[in-house]
Known about the structure:
Structural class: mainly alpha
Distance between the termini: 65 Å
Number of helices: 4
Strand content: under 5%
Shape: rod-shaped
Order of helices and strands: HHHH
Amino acid sequence: MDNLIILPAILFPAIPLMMANFGNRYSSLSTLIRKIHDELINKKISKNDKSANRYLAQIKILRKRLVLNRMMQTIASFSFFINLISIYFGFKYQEYFINTFLFAVFLFALSIAIFIYELQVSAQALDKHLEDLEEL
């Protein structure tokens, strides 16, 4: 059992790195949302304009990505916290160590799965931009 305490130490640096990656995705996403917001406000596009449907489709995808990003960051944060708890249990309450660590790994895996899905949604957003270019 004493050698198992090394397991959370392996997971320990991976979670904050992924959270930094998620944070960078959030920053780029917020920049994109602000850019589209400014374009819509400055151009004063109404719902009847031809380009309004494209903007609305992009906004729908961005909203979905924002929700997914929030989920990824929250679950990764919980995973990091539970990983810390598992390290504590490894020293103090060894009977709870394995289950706690496995729960942290599960949460981290869930966060990565959401990240993969968000990447797919991100590709959909880029497709919307390409549709605009194809019509030109």
